[in-house]
Amino acid sequence: MTSLELSTYLNLSVYTIYGLVHKRSLPFIKKGRRLYFEKKEIDKWLMQGRQMTKEDLNLKVDEYLMRNPR
Length: 70
Description:
mainly alpha, 4 helices
């Protein structure tokens, strides 16, 4: 997808997209002078910022305690 398509997909301005690319915070492909983005990689990048719910945290704690009894 192009920068314009990505800005629509993420509901961000194109300038914000370029800023994230400049900081190398956003996964991108550069072919010549053009930037491209893979939807799969963008979705993966978005999921990295996902916050765990209390239920998720409780499950992790339970798993940890089961593996590491005192």
